[in-house]
Amino acid sequence: MEKLNELERQKGETLKFYAPASLLHRLQEAMNKTDEESEIVHRQLLDREIDLATFVQKYKKLRNTYHRRGLTHLAAKTSLNGQV
């Protein structure tokens, strides 16, 4: 019986982890982290810690990732709610 309870607990945790709301929350957190990283790169440019070519390469990659995640988040949210 103890093994069954443990398996039920694990099942509940797994379902909770993959629940749509949980996935949306983690995607939003990833977007926020990417946004913060792009701001750090921007500050590095302003503080002359990196050159313009390095800035453009890093910033473009980060913003591309941010917007791709944003579109995925919007599509998932729309799909779940039937509206924005």
From TrEMBL:
Compartment(s) of residence: Endosome
The UniProt record lists the VPS37 C-terminal domain at 1-84
What keywords would UniProt list here? Endosome, Protein transport, Transport
UniProt xrefs under Gene3D superfamilies? Helix hairpin bin (1.10.287.660)
Q: Keyword Hydrolase on this protein? A: no
Taxonomic superkingdom: Eukaryota
Q: Which GO terms describe its biological process?
A: protein transport
Q: Name one GO cellular component term.
A: ESCRT I complex
Similarity comment: Belongs to the VPS37 family.
Write the protein's name.
VPS37 C-terminal domain-containing protein
What organism is this sequence from? Ilex paraguariensis
